[in-house]
Amino acid sequence: MNLADKIVMIPSLPLEIHALVRELGRVEGVESIWIIGSQANGRATPTSDWDFLVLGPEQSLKNIAAQWHQQPANVDILVVVDGDQFQSPWPREGTTKPKSGSLNTWEWRQDSSNEASYLGTKSSDDDPDEAFIDFSERALRIHP
Predict the structure, then answer these.
(1) Which residue from 72, 58, 6, 51 is spatially nearest to 28, judged by alpha carbons?
(2) Domain spans of the chain?
């Protein structure tokens, strides 16, 4: 079996998302793929997107952008290019700038070979005076 075909199966992973992850794993330079966000943390709703963190050198970011000329529907991919800084291969909708950030800011910690934890942030629906809420999240390595 090709290393790119070794994907941890998540019971709720739809076939089209599984196929996308398999293709991502075959992109030159991709070292690992992690699922993050609501899908990895049991908070997904029927309208939730799929959030992936891809680790690899800067060339992998360029290779992903070249293979998919636009962002796949209902999928958010962030590529970590230097062990800390990440960026989306595509600009945010309505802008010319891609989503970017830092694993250090997320307080990313790899807890085992297949699990990591990080600090998630979301806007508060309950308290308009409190702009953001921080909470602990988990990430699951799904490739290789």
Answers:
(1) 58
(2) 3-143
